[in-house]
Specification:
single chain; Immunoglobulin-like; globular; binds copper (II) ion; binds zinc ion
């Protein structure tokens, strides 16, 4: 009986350990805008899923990147630094030729300024030892304009209207 209880306890603990990690952050409005929303990152096994929900954007297309520094303190979010690029690649479109590890792409805000972007990858992790994958300590930036996937090294995405410190 005791052994049965112990083994079922071990089983429960094993499930808890293999279970996913979720972190939710509030988006900070930047550059005099009133951008609002949340960014949720979930790691399940080797896959990280980002669920980005944004409101009060200007309608249309906005670039979204992970930038190298987890610092949103500057009014224009310049404190977040450039695109997170641990592999020293050119800026580009995710999954196409060369791209930065932070080159998530674009989101599309509707006429009310609301947007949602779901993004899934096994190239990131939440807090693992591999710093070429770890997004903790970086930031997520939402831009005023769209990413053209060509202009180096920024995608010509304009100012920074929202910023999230991923801690
Ligand atoms: Cu950016
Ligand atoms: Zn880039």
């Amino acid at each position: 009986m005791k052994i049965a209880m112990l083994s079922s306890l071990t089983f429960v603990v094993a499930i808890a350990v293999s279970c996913s990690t979720t972190k939710t952050y509030t988006i900070n409005s930047k550059s005099g805008t009133s951008t609002q929303g949340t960014a949720t990152f979930t790691q399940s096994g080797k896959t990280v899923t980002m669920d980005l929900n944004v409101s009060k954007l200007t309608p249309g297309i906005h670039a979204v990147h992970i930038h190298e520094k987890g610092d949103c303190s500057a009014a224009d979010a310049s404190s977040a630094g450039g695109h997170w690029n641990p592999t020293s690649h050119k800026h580009g479109q995710w999954g196409h030729d060369e791209f930065h590890m932070g080159d998530i792409g674009n989101l599309n805000a509707d006429q009310e300024g609301n947007a949602r972007l779901l993004f899934k990858t096994d190239k990131w992790c939440l807090g693992c030892v591999d710093e070429s994958k770890n997004i903790i300590g970086r930031s997520l930036v939402i831009h005023a304009d769209k990413d053209d996937f060509k202009t180096q090294p920024t995608g010509n995405a304009g100012g920074r209207v929202g910023c999230v410190e991923i801690k």
